């Protein structure tokens, strides 16, 4: 984070920036980036106690989705996706899947990113008809290479994760897996910043 005496870039606008300025900034990026998993885990805790009328709060729903995926033998990156799929509810109230998809994008496969981004529409199969909407909205994606994977995520892990009597693993159980998946971006224009 740094205090007032730390080395800082001197430009008033980026078009006056120098190589030295950017060496200072790059030097800060790596330690900051290395803490992204901690920031994500902290943000997840905001969902604690947030029921929104559901039988379980949003943190428990997230833990239950991830626990079900884990117990079903899904790999770590999938489990982390399951844990974070609704993390956008607080800030992306009208587009929550986009938030989780954007956070995960540098660290997961294109398939897992697609599942995250589209899960809202696919999950709608289980309730849109109760709200006067088209439960088959997902049919617009029928034939897409990840259609069945997204349908499976919702069917097996997401729409089932509202059982108040289910014994989910605690958030601490997932912390090492989250740290591992967020350790190294596989897909980011900033991936090389701060490396030699
Ligand atoms: Fe969702
Ligand atoms: Fe969900």
Q: Any low-confidence stretches, pLDDT <50, length ≥5?
A: none
Shape: elongated
Total helices: the number is 8
Number of domains: 1
CATH topology: Hypothetical protein af1432
List the helices and strands in order.
HHHHHHHH
The CATH architecture assignment turns out to be Orthogonal Bundle
Assigned CATH class: Mainly Alpha
Q: Alpha-carbon distance between the termini?
A: 22 Å
Corresponding CATH superfamily: Hypothetical protein af1432
Number of strands: 0
Beta-strand portion reads: under 5%
Largest sheet: none
How helix-rich are the residues, as a percent range? Answer: 40-55%
Which hetero ligands occur in this complex? fe (ii) ion
Give the helix/strand class. mainly alpha
**What is the mean predicted local confidence, pLDDT?**
95
Structural notes for this entry:
- With 196 residues, this protein is mostly helical.
- The chain has one domain (36-181): Hypothetical protein af1432.
- Helices cover 47% and strands 0% of the residues.
- The chain contains 8 helices and no strands.
- It has helices at residues 19-33, 36-44, 58-71, 76-84, 96-104, 110-123, 147-158, 171-181.
- The protein is elongated, with a radius of gyration of 19 Å.
- The model has no long low-confidence stretch (mean pLDDT 95).
């Amino acid at each position: 984070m740094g205090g007032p005496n730390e080395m800082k870039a001197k430009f008033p606008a980026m078009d006056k920036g120098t190589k030295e300025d950017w060496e200072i900034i790059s030097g800060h990026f790596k330690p900051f980036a290395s803490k992204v998993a901690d920031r994500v885990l902290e943000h997840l805790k905001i969902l604690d106690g947030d029921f929104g009328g559901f039988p379980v709060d949003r943190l428990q729903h997230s833990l239950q989705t991830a626990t079900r995926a884990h117990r079903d033998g899904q790999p770590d990156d999938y489990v982390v996706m399951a844990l974070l799929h609704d993390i956008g509810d607080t800030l992306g109230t009208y587009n929550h899947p986009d938030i989780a998809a954007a956070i995960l994008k540098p660290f997961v496969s294109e398939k897992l990113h697609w599942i995250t981004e589209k899960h809202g529409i696919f999950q709608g199969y289980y309730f849109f008809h109760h709200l006067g909407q088209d439960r088959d909205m997902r049919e617009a994606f029928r034939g897409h290479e990840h259609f069945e994977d997204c349908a499976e995520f919702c069917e097996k892990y997401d729409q089932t994760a509202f059982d108040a009597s289910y014994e989910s693993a605690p958030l601490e159980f997932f912390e090492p897996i989250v740290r591992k998946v967020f350790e190294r971006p596989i897909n980011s224009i900033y991936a090389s910043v701060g490396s030699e």
